[in-house]
């Protein structure tokens, strides 16, 4: 099976010229997953298909019948990958085993986080949401809070993080936002994938609101509607202690504590990470992405889809 590359025309990234628009979308989707050494099943390729809305049946037919795609995408019958990258299948299987261990921890601690005061949604994000982790990986969470309580809720979340670390569980709540700030200003393929891949562990009503506020993701991933398969957590009643804490901290005292905690932590973050590019902080969100994964992934993707190979 031959290898193919893309080309750049007028600053835009394009797939190999011999592919039609749907085939280009299929190829691009496989290229993006190749960044993470992650071959895709048919259902995954359909869900995360970039910019093309078609049924899974139509996708399967195109993959089976297109001779052009056969020169650009390999398959072992279960997974799809770039030509010569069949070794990624075993990598995925190995990482999936490690993910199984972490997923049970992620769900268990996610329930603890969900019962904290002012927490309205806990969702699993990052590589673990795709069961694609190596040893030593973190458990990434996105958390939505009540309005005006991002930093107070974050302080409580960090208490759980430290308790979990003492027990050997690496929790990383790297994006905490208010329900007043559900719309994502940064709109690109990376962010769309992160939103579509996240697994809600609690707060399905808030998850639906978040997806509704970010319908722009459908421009990138028109088939990725709703949560991933099987991600429908049951409704959980609030603990009485949680309701009491929210009542006690729901007024001016809570406002002052939240403002004080925000000022304290942002000053600390600025000292520790003076050159951050993707981290962002305000009254309504704490986005602690100090490692620039987004720009790195998009840059790598752009290079891979725009280079021409012989």
What would you say this structure looks like, in words?
The chain is an alpha+beta fold. It folds into two domains: 7-86, Arc Repressor Mutant, subunit A, CATH 1.10.10; 101-292, Beta Polymerase, domain 2 (2-Layer Sandwich), CATH 3.30.460. It has helices at 21-34, 42-47, 56-65, 67-70, 88-114, 126-129, 150-166, 189-197, 204-213, 217-220, 240-248, 252-272, 293-306, and strands spanning 7-9, 12-14, 74-75, 80-81, 119-125, 139-145, 171-178, 199-202, 280-282, 285-287. It has a six-stranded mixed beta sheet with strand order 8-5-6-7-10-9, sandwiched between helices. Strands 1-2 form a two-stranded antiparallel ribbon.
Order of helices and strands: EEHHHHEEHEHEHEHEHHHHEEH
Main sheet makeup: 6 strands, mixed
The CATH top-level class label of the largest domain: Alpha Beta
Distance between the termini: 13 Å
CATH architecture of the largest domain: 2-Layer Sandwich
**Proportion of residues in helical segments:** 40-55%
Quote the average pLDDT: 87
Summing up helix and strand content along with how strands pair, one would put the structural category as alpha+beta
CATH homologous superfamily label of the largest domain: Beta Polymerase, domain 2
